[in-house]
Write a structure and sequence with these properties.
Keywords: ATP-binding, Nucleotide-binding, Transport. GO terms for molecular function: ATP binding; ATP hydrolysis activity. The chain has 262 residues and is of the alpha/beta class. The chain has a domain at 1-85 and 164-173 and 195-248: 3-Layer(aba) Sandwich (Rossmann fold), CATH 3.40.50. The protein has helices at residues 47-55, 76-83, 101-112, 117-130, 146-157, 176-193, 204-207, 228-233, 237-244, and strands at 9-18, 21-31, 36-40, 62-67, 70-71, 86-89, 164-168, 196-201, 213-218, 221-226. Helix 3 runs parallel beside helix 5 and helix 4 packs across helix 5 (146-157).
């Protein structure tokens, strides 16, 4: 039976595969409720695969994944109900280009709730205000800067007031200022709403300062779980290679593709 103090997400001895190929193995992880957790690691290390297991998109080959004390369901209807409690900020934003910002934010509300039009508009306005885009409601995605588009996608991700927010590389394509704005906004929402937030990223400098917990994925498994300051102080050769951006070390890369070697 789940309790108010049980983790928002728990993985126990999880192995994740694609087409019979093991991507991640031996995953044991607990994400505290109300926390902000950074999942870090080099490109191709399996960070997004980890998110796919939490959303139920990928069924583990071994082990269990629990969200708010319940195993991630496999039936379509139960999975849909669980996903109503998840907000997902996609790497590419996923905004529909022929809809305005307000119409994009309204999509999950129209799909899952029966609201009178005035209440729906009020909720959309509140979410846009929360991300600082109240004046951009009638703009189209093509009229937004990269940082504004990311914030619009965030407003849509929290439209249903989910207790868990999953962010897949939220800083991709953003300049340092926009990156700082997005991470500060995520932290603000985490603290003001009690939102549990998992941020998948390879942007160490921008992500670690606003997180409570850090996880590092490399070489097919979790190689670190703990406080951000402990991670930054670590002298472990693998962690130092990632944190310092060193070309040579325990994390192997393919010389041709530049991706992490299997």
């Amino acid at each position: 039976m789940p309790t108010p103090t049980s983790p928002a997400v728990r993985l126990s001895d999880v192995r994740l595969e694609y087409s019979g190929r093991t991507i991640l193995r031996g995953l044991d992880l607990a994400v505290p409720r109300g926390s902000m957790t950074a999942v870090l690691g080099p490109s191709g290390s399996g960070k997004s695969t980890l998110l796919a297991a939490i959303t139920g998109e990928l069924v583990p080959a071994q082990g269990t994944v629990e969200v708010f004390g319940q195993p991630v369901p496999r039936g379509a209807r139960a999975l849909l109900e669980m996903r109503k409690r998840l907000g997902v900020l996609l790497q590419g934003n996923g905004l529909l280009t022929d809809l305005t910002v307000a119409e994009n934010v309204a999509l999950p509300l129209r799909a899952h709730l029966r609201l009178a039009e005035p209440e729906l508009r009020a909720r959309v306005a509140a979410k846009l205000d929360a991300v600082g885009l109240g004046a951009a409601a009638d703009l189209f995605p093509r009229e937004l800067s990269g940082g504004m588009a990311r914030r619009a996608a965030l407003a849509r991700a929290i439209a249903l007031d989910p207790p868990l927010l999953l962010c897949d590389e939220p800083l991709t394509g953003l300049d340092p200022i926009a990156s700082g704005v997005v991470m500060a906004l995520l932290r603000q929402l985490n603290q003001s709403l009690g939102l549990t937030c998992i941020v998948v990223s390879h942007h160490v400098r921008e992500t670690l300062p606003v997180c409570d917990q850090a996880v590092v994925v490399a070489n097919g498994t979790l190689v670190f779980e703990g406080a951000p300051d402990v991670l930054q102080a670590s002298q472990d050769p693998l962690l130092r290679q990632f944190l310092d951006g060193a070309a040579h070390g325990p994390i192997a890369f393919d010389d041709v593709t530049g991706q992490r070697a299997a």
